[in-house]
Design brief:
By secondary structure, the protein is an alpha/beta fold. It folds into two domains: about 80 residues, Chemotaxis Receptor Methyltransferase Cher, domain 1 (Orthogonal Bundle); about 180 residues, Vaccinia Virus protein VP39 (Rossmann fold, 3-Layer(aba) Sandwich), CATH 3.40.50.150. Helices cover about 40% and strands about 20% of the residues. The strands form two sheets. Strands 6-2-1-7-8-10-9 form a seven-stranded mixed sheet. A three-stranded antiparallel sheet has the order 3-5-4. Helix 3 runs antiparallel to helix 5 and helix 6 packs across helix 7. The radius of gyration is 21 Å and the shape is globular. The structure holds S-adenosylmethionine. S-adenosylmethionine (SAM) binds next to loops.
Amino acid sequence: MNYDEACSIVRLSDSEFEFIVDFVSKRYGIDLSQKRRLIEARLAGELKSNGFDNYAQYINALKSDPTSEKVETFINKITTNYSYFSRETDHYDFLANTVIASLSQAKKTSIKVWSAGCSTGEEPYNIAMAIDSALGIKRNLWNVSIVATDVSTRALAVAKKGVYPESELNVMPPAWKANYMVKQPDGNYKVADSIRNKVSFSQFNLMTPFFPKNTYDVVFCRNVMIYFKPATTQEIVKKFYQSTVEGGYLFIGHSETISRLDNDYTYISPSIYRKLKK
Ligand SMILES: C[S@@+](CC[C@H](N)C(=O)[O-])C[C@H]1O[C@@H](n2cnc3c(N)ncnc32)[C@H](O)[C@@H]1O
């Protein structure tokens, strides 16, 4: 038995590979043009569980019903949902020290944040924790809302549960672990209701043409657009701009930049941009 047979890997023909690259890029923005082996590895189990011998059969099934459960499973397999608590913590510090402080100064008592590409929930829960600890005794006077969206229903199911192994909490500030995570009988930790109540999860594809207008004080879209081509990122950043209130912020991942793209945000610091009056 060779390696492919042992791992149940079925190789894509050139035209099958091109179909999948085009399908994913148009519908979800993700650029897989250099990811042939990754597609084959991630879809191997799907072919097997559907009883398909080759990709032609699988592609026909995707084409025959583009809204089907098969397409949902397909995108769940294709997306990379890697995330963890306390990732790129300076954004949480900025949120607590700069954003909350300036809203308070402006006598505001509400904040609305969008975690776009929230994956398995660590990011939006961390946002809620950062805001809660910054507000302290004023927390009950504020209206805090975090909208968390992702295209992957598999990632969203994990996020909604809000249960994580203790090993995931090692990086979290001890006070946050003590205040916001509740140990379960099986040793895992569940996000406290006071934090869960602030976060609402839903499926949302960033390739959707219409985004909410002038809604969010802060948009987090970190480590999502790294998978997109620059032209796609540019379109999405323009839509984020419309969704951001005047004076609001966009946070992107540390390895990303939008400075070379045509957009109206003002650069504040690496990975932080602001919508300022023009
Ligand atoms: C690597 S995770 C990043 C998670 C989190 N933002 C972080 O920085 O830890 C990227 C997420 O983007 C999501 N994603 C990719 N394409 C998307 C699209 N078109 N619409 C919405 N979410 C998308 C994936 O499903 C995945 O969960």
